[in-house]
Amino acid sequence: MAATATSAATPPPVKRRWRRRLLLLCGGLVLAAIALWYLLPLCISAPGLPAAQDTRVWDRNGKLLGLIPGEDGYRHQSLTKLPYELARCLVAAEDGRFFRHGGVDLLSAARAAYNRMRGTSLSGASTLTMQLAKLCATPAERTYSVKLREALQARALEYRYSKEEILLAYINTADFGNQCRGAEAAALFYFGKHAEELATHEAALLAALVRAPSRLDPIRHPQAALTRRNCILEKLGESTAAPLGVKAHRLNAPTYICRTPGQLTIDADLQQDIAAIALQELRHLHRNNVSQAAVVVIDNRNGELLACIPAADPASPRGGKLNGAGLPRSAGSTLKPFVYLQAFGHGAWPGTVMADVPTLYRSEDGTRAPGNYNDKYLGPITIRQALGCSQNIPAMEALNHYGNENALLNLLRGLGLHLQGNKKEYGLGLAIGNAHVTLLQLAHAYSTLARGGSKLPLATTLPHPQATPTPMLDARHCYQIAHILSDQGARAATFGDAPHLRFPFPCAAKTGTSSNYRDNWCCGFTAEYTVGVWVGNFDNSPMQQISGIDGAGPIFRRVMLRLQDYNQSPLSFPARPSGLCDVKIDTRNGCIAGPHTPRQCTATELATEEQLAALPAPHTDARGRVILDARYADWYRSSAAQHLYALDATARSNRAPAILIPAHGSYVKPDPTLPHGGRYIELVSTLPTATSHWESNTLRIEKRNGKFYAILTPGQHTIRLISPPDTQLESTFTVSPN
To answer: pLDDT by residue (tens digit) across 340-381?
Structure first.
């Protein structure tokens, strides 16, 4: 009986074998799972954590100006310390068991798989470590093999890095929307504070954004963002009463100055004040169809750029995102100081008398009769008054007689103006603004004037090499130009009192207005600073009758006054160099004033010894009146100053003898809408009409009212100009048969 009971309780051999096999299989599966969990990740190449990035840009005093966008278009800024509140919110929002799993949350994975089989949920089981692996990998289609790779890489990351390192790497890499990658950039953009300074409700909002940065954008979709944020706060047991408190802060660094991280020469506080000044003055100009302005400030002592306002109204749809300091615009009259600077090197000086009368000039593409912008002509004026009043005709004559276009182009390019083209393309129009310059280049050139002709490279970043100024110009001539530009009386005949160019300290200033009022300029300097202002429209539409005096001038004046406060001491004028002396002159002819020079014609001028030695002898009549040449004839007839001047209609001017109309090689087509069918053409030269004689073998020439005319017939003709004692000129041209 006992043997039978024992035999019945013992399992059959077959059952024992199957039980053993089952135990071995389970053990093998367990060992395989352990190997898969612990050993396989050791064979996987873990992605390296993203390198720390510092794309911050600081001002000269260490104030943050913004971030430089990376190649991907995102603004990055890595943290070195884990922000506690954000870490807490992020774990609650995305991975509640982050500190308890090994990179893959098996419970969440099992739950997600079970719910998918039931069709009740599409939620995933991606952990923060898996998301970091995804961020570090090349973007790929979401397949099961990709998910498996991310899981293995997550396990590998957990082997190599601590939880805190992984979480910090994720916070530095995640997309928080609005071109912000990383929590530091996001905190600065949405809240204007550092990530470590975020309150719990602010950190919860950033934690909400990583799931769907676009759909939960708190600026475009505030309600969706608020709902998701509150869900996270409820998980943490925190109050949901706080508002979003989001505001889009300007975060882009001034890439129009520098495209790499670092410290700029810009002073952020000064720049902010100047931006406010420019915007306030711009609003006064809106009624004149003015939409934008740009301002730059350069420290003349070291060449550093202290402020640069690319667009005074950055929110404007009319170019608010453009860089007005770097866009080439028509220079207007702002190049005239350099025209006269060149003239001083070729025999002229501030007392040289120029003819401000209507004048015809011949260029390679025809003849032109430019005028002064206000159609006002002052007759014989000194270079001081010509520059102060910004008259066009004297500037063109100075370029025509003292130097040439090629020399001026070389001078301007040497000063840093990147002018394209050649002499033929510009012609004498270079003197009155047909060249295009940028505000930054123009201000840089003016700063060389302020330093007495010594050029420094424009510095925009700190530290920068201490450059030695390069002498480029005669310091005496630069001072003469600066002195004229600071002379309120020199500009009075055209601009009157000009209150926008009056200062409690000596200041050189030059305004400019391009044709059709498309650009306003005001550039000037003291010994310490150079300021450049441009006003206009980026779409090139004309302003409504607003000149540089009233457009750019008010901004220039207020910026200069702000710089006096910034300098913490009164601004000064460039030091007068040695080699200049004061001399009393007769402004009618630029000669030394004599005992009989009328008081109103006497002025004190600055001259070098060479300029004094070359002064002309006075040319007056018996009554002491200065004798003018034939070029002044029309002006003289209507002048109220005939008691000061006498006219010699036979006297030649200093212009080179030339036939202006008809120009040699020209093709003339009569206009049938004009009187006599347009077959009468006035003959014009640079020589006095009173002593000139015209001849032609093929055309009839008539003289009427002191002027010569040719009666045109079809064909090729040669016309001769004879002027005693020894001048004879010819011009061959063709007349159209129709």
So the answer is: 999 999 999 999 999 999 988 876 666 777 777 777 899 999
The SS3 of residue 727 is strand
**What is the rounded CA–CA span in Å between residue 658 and residue 686?**
6
Nearest residue to 254 (alpha-carbon basis) of 179, 181, 324, 192: 324
Q: Which two tokens stand for residue 723?
A: 């002027």
Q: Are strands 304-309 and 727-735 parallel, antiparallel or unpaired?
A: unpaired
List, in sequence order, the alpha helices (H) in 174-216: 183-191, 200-209
Peptide bond into 662 cis (omega under 30): yes
Angle subtended by helix axes 336-344 and 439-450, to nearest 10: 40
Burial class of 583 by CB neighbour count within 10 A (0 to 12, 13 to 18, 19+):
middle
List alpha helices for 35-127, DSSP H.
Answer: 40-43, 84-94, 106-118
Any idea which residue has 């352990």 for tokens?
34
CA distance 710 to 187: 81
Residues facing residue 292 across a β-bridge: 536
CB 631 within 8 A of CB 655: yes
The residue whose two tokens read 């870490």 is: 87
Count the neighbouring beta carbons within 10 Å of the beta carbon of residue 549: 24
Torsions phi, psi for 729 (to 5 deg): -120, 155
Rounded to 10 degrees, the C-alpha dihedral 692/697/698/701 comes to: 30
Instruction: Characterize 419-433 residue by residue with b for buried, 16 or more Cβ atoms within 10 angstroms of its Cβ, and e for exposed.
Output: beeeeebbbbbbbbb
pLDDT for res 609: 94
**CA-to-CA distance for 659 and 652, rounded, in angstroms?**
14
Distance of CA 440 to the CA centre of its chain: 6
